[in-house]
Amino acid sequence: MVKTNWTIISNFIFLGFTSYPKVEIIIFVLCLLMYSITLLGNIILISISILDSRLHTPMYFFLSNLSFLDIWYTSSSLTPMLANFVSRKNTISFSGCAIQMYFSLAMGSTECVLLSMMAYDRYVAICNPLRYSIIMNRRVCVQIAAGSWVTGYLTALVETVCVLQLSLCGNSIINHFTCEILAILKLVCVDTSMVEFLMLVISILLLPMQMLLVCISYAFILSNILRINSADGRSKAFSTCAAHLTVVVLFYGTALSMYLKPSSVDSQEIDKFMALLYVVVTPMLNPIIYSLRNKEVKAAVKKLLIRNSLCAYLFPIANGIDKH
Question: Tens digit of pLDDT for each residue in 267-296?
Fold first, then answer.
């Protein structure tokens, strides 16, 4: 098979969900709807976290980071797919594919670390409430968030550079809806064992290790909740923890099933649907489960809406008085 350099290939072609023509339009509509909800929910969360001083806490600082991350994570993978569906081109340039692969990996890796750090923040808040403001001070929060972003971007850079150095087999058809690294590796016709080993090491550090930290944090949290005397308090705490763990398990679980499966298992079609879960569904659920269910967030949204309504009502009156 003829080896081809990356620079020779000018465009890649996505197969996407063309194998399922009857459900392709349904997938497009659902993805567009969920993407709109993702943008709206996360933009609202970021806005109220900035505008409402009561939400200037470590938890909402991390949630704002997560919301910003989810917006770019979903946009980097989903908007090209939606645009390709409308234009019917299903193509992407070499440089576009490389950029998309890097940012998708960077955002996904950052979220893996950030979710575990958020679980630690909840552990400190619930298990050490008196020392919470001391332990999770502003400097520590910024360092944790910055560390999560740097880790995600560096690991993604290493993986992307390693893949871009491999020779392709002349095939420019990607059996996916995005430039997903595992789908790109299937186009390579040289030995990929070293790259796959490197990806395995990074995946272990970012997925099961981070998920273990989350589980340990929530084990201590649940242990502390069981000591609560109030039945209503226990019920509320369990409900919140269950909701958080649902999102965590959904995100880590789908990523684990893709990046740590045996190499002998070839399930490209299943991988595409699994990718939709952590690219589209999880970012949509994050603002709903983590924040929009909270009384503090509901109060902040209500306050913001009332303020905007008053401004919309008073400004015309003020303009009318100025004219007279």
Answer: 677 778 888 888 888 888 888 877 656 676
